[in-house]
Amino acid sequence: MSLDALFSPLTMGTLAMPNRVVMAPLTRARASAASVPLPIQGEYYAQRADAGLIISEATAVDPLGMGWYRAPGIWSDEMVTAWKGVTDQVHAAGGRIYCQLWHMGRLVLPDYLGGALPIGPSAIAGEGETMAPPTADYDGGFLPMKPYVVPRAMRQSDINYLVAAYGRAAANAMAAGFDGAEIHGANGYVIDQFLQSKTNQRQDGYGGSVENRVRLLDEVIGAVTAHVDPGRVGLRISPTSERKGMGDANPAALTEAIGALAQRHGLAYIHLIEPVASGFMEKPDYPVIAHLRAMFAGAIIQNGSFDAPTAVAHIEGGKADAISFGRPYIANPDLVTRLREGHPLAPANFDYAYVGDAKGYTDYPPYG
């Protein structure tokens, strides 16, 4: 089977990519305890610079949306300066990197907010549990887990503040030297919480109909594209995912509304999580890619349990223009070469997925 389709150039929006292998965002918890990026993150991304595009780990736009210990933010001047060091290393290695803009909404524990409740579209808790911040006697290793709590339903002032936070973060991403930005509208975080009907029970202009539920996303895209050329802006979505208590009554209609919105704003791409096999996320019974293609003329990146043959099949079949790989990038900094030349992939040590420093992060060697 020829793999040429995966390694052919692609112009996505205004970005020229040498191949169609995208490094998916991977939260690895290597920033400082104050959420400031560290130089080792630049080394990590530079090792993977032969990807057609690197999408950074989820990067919080505001302290209220940060609920992951040692994940990075981009709301302060200190963070901008630190991220500039990271993007400089990627560019020196010949790579391209977008900043994924993130707010966790209801999935933030009060432990990260000085005891205050997190915010969300409605007072409905996420399902499951998440990592709490370390206690005073923490000496490394995995963090304690706590269940999600019922959030405070957002007022209009909260929504206005959130939209402005995305705008500030987008401006900061440009100042930090990123080549573009991806809006994180997937995986059960705040934008996804507004989009899906199970988590959005609002009775105002942001809830009810699908047209109302995409309103926050519309405003966020407007705030981001005020600072970043739409040809360098993407959107990540997972409309069929039910993880963490998500769910929508009509994912196909939601997908069409999102696609129409992205088309109107002229976004470069939509990054669709629609797995070809169940794993981190379930393979959907009713895929929505055809609904997205019907409404959106930009590029589509597909994500979810792909290997080289399935990636090529999706590109050649018109279901994707590029494919993003997440977990394979953990232990394979030279993933593009390994896929192109058919070398075996190294296994990741997940004991160090979210803890540690260089170990399990920058110490995976290239093939041979």
UniProtKB/TrEMBL annotation:
UniProt cross-references to InterPro entries, sorted A to Z: Aldolase_TIM, OxRdtase_FMN_N, Oye-like
- Enumerate the spans annotated as NADH:flavin oxidoreductase/NADH oxidase N-terminal domain: 6-344
What is any Pfam family matched here?
A: Oxidored_FMN
Q: Which CDD domains match?
A: OYE_like_FMN (cd02933)
Recorded protein name is: Alkene reductase
Query: What species does this protein belong to?
Result: Sphingobium rhizovicinum
Q: What is the lineage of its organism?
A: Bacteria, Pseudomonadati, Pseudomonadota, Alphaproteobacteria, Sphingomonadales
